[in-house]
Protein: HTH-type transcriptional regulator MetR
Organism: Marinobacterium sediminicola
Amino acid sequence: MGMIEIRHLKTLAALRDAGSLVEAAERIHLTQSALSHQIKDLEERLNCSLFIRKTRPICFTSAGQRLLNLADELLPMVRSAERDIMRLAGGETGRLNICIECHSCFDWLMPTIDHFRQHWPEVELDLSTGFSFLPLPALARGDLDLVITSDPEERTGIHYVPLFSYESILVMGRQHRLVAKRHIQPQDLAQETLITYPVEQDRLDVFTRFLDPAGVEPGEIRTSELTVMIMQLVASGRGVSALPNWAAHEYLQREYISARPLGEKGLWCTLYAAMREDQKDADFMIDFLNTAREVTFRNLNGIRSA
């Protein structure tokens, strides 16, 4: 057996991208103990350490960095070969009509579609938003093939695949009174203007999982379809808004706004891909989901494995 295996490269790449053993183990579907054992086994084979323990973010040694460079070069080639074999074995044609129930998902969905289209040119792609109709019944009827949603419903013949988890945070102007709080309680919003996307309240986590259980209603509700417009209103002191942490990251980095967790432990949500049971094993569907995970974990800040 050779000293270095593909699984080792995948493990090191996950460790670098995740920044911790716990998160890396979740991403590659191992226990933390199994991941630690795999790394220790590789270090014994190579007779050198690959990263410095108890550093955060993880600091790799020269040997570890060399293997990461190899992983960055080799793993995309392996993935491309696997994709080609899938196409040869299962056929290249199909239809993928996608619907999203998430305004801010365009940030990662469009790069995913662009990447997917390069490798599956014969698959017919279409994209729509589910803000003006109910997409899950349309999926069950066969009008759609894939729905991106954070609100799964138990339906016969529908299969859900978790993509990633994210934190919904409250964003506010830098001089807002709530900046003084460590975290936001539901009653803090009773006198606030809450800016949301223009969808029903029962499809927004800030209502269903935060305000409604506490019996609290915001002082006023205002809507906007564009994330950038919401950020402008928030920064101007026109209200506050609950948004995915990745959607707010750029604005927080630029110190354009401030943000606080919703609740003492934060409000964590999971984004799912919904599809019909009869399509979940289609090669192009599997590859689309794998591509979506790769793109999101490479480009979105603050997300976790679901």
User: Anything to note?
Assistant: The two ends are 33 Å apart (CA to CA). The mean pLDDT is 90. The longest helix spans residues 62-90.
